[in-house]
Amino acid sequence: MGNIIEINNLGKSFKDANILININFSVEKGKIIGIIGRNGSGKTVLFKCICGLNRPTKGTIKINNRELGKDIDIPDRIGAIIENPGFIPNYNAFKNLKFLSMIKNKIEDKQILDAIALVGLNPKSKKHVGKYSLGMRQRLGIAQAIMEDPDILILDEPMNGLDNDGVQDMRRLFLKLKEQGKTILLASHNKEDIEVLCDVVYSMDKGILKVLKSE
């Protein structure tokens, strides 16, 4: 199918600390890629670089053959959940996602409602997000990531706070999205998530990326 993401000689430093070191990484369209590693290993920084939220210190990132920082500043076909989702506590689920959708203004209300339902929440609920459990907030964060029908999903510990039923629901959802041709980058501490979902697996340690499992 060809590579949707191409990363060459990527490095990222903050002051004197090297967070990402000479990363070479390509992702084939329609695959689920797993990245495992301890907290502070560089996974989240890598994801932020791919999303255009952090600028690399060196190297290049291409999304659909367009280079970040040169051809485009922010990739427009990426949905992401990175760190804890931030929502307005006195808005319900729909109002929160409606507010966020206005940034790009490219989807209708129906797509927002559909995304909320897909993650197992009630799209018509008036309940304020401030009263949500951690698992419900996580589901809403995933709804936010998928609502604009992105080609690429960047999911940093997407199962955080979910009970066993929630984990099973999200696994089924991610596999369904893969069947639709979506490309997913997934960081998880859960070994079973990686085994069940991922076509290719990398480990990240002290900013260095290594292949653990390839097709």
Short description:
By secondary structure, the chain is of the alpha/beta class.
What features would you describe in this structure?
It is a single chain. The chain is α/β, with parallel strands linked by helices and about 220 residues long. Helices cover about 30% and strands about 30% of the residues. The chain contains six helices and ten strands. The strands form two sheets. It has a six-stranded mixed sheet, sandwiched between helices. The protein has a four-stranded antiparallel sheet with strand order 2-1-4-5, covered by helices on one side. A hairpin with a 2-residue loop joins β9 and β10 (about 210-215). α2 packs across α3 and α3 crosses α4. It is globular and about 50 Å long. It starts with a strand and ends with a strand. About 40% of the residues are buried.
Which short descriptors sum up this protein?
215 residues; alpha/beta; 4-stranded antiparallel sheet
How many E-type strands?
10
Largest sheet: 6 strands, mixed
Number of helices in the DSSP assignment: 6
**Rg for CA atoms:** 17 Å
Helix content estimate: 25-40%
Q: Give the distance, in angstroms, between the N- and C-terminal Cα atoms.
A: 14 Å
Shape label: globular
Can you list the strand order of the major beta sheet? 6-7-8-3-9-10
Average pLDDT level: 94
Strand content: 25-35%
Structural class category = alpha/beta
The ordered string of helix (H) and strand (E) elements is: EEEHEEEHHHEHEHEE
Task: Give the low-confidence spans.
Answer: none
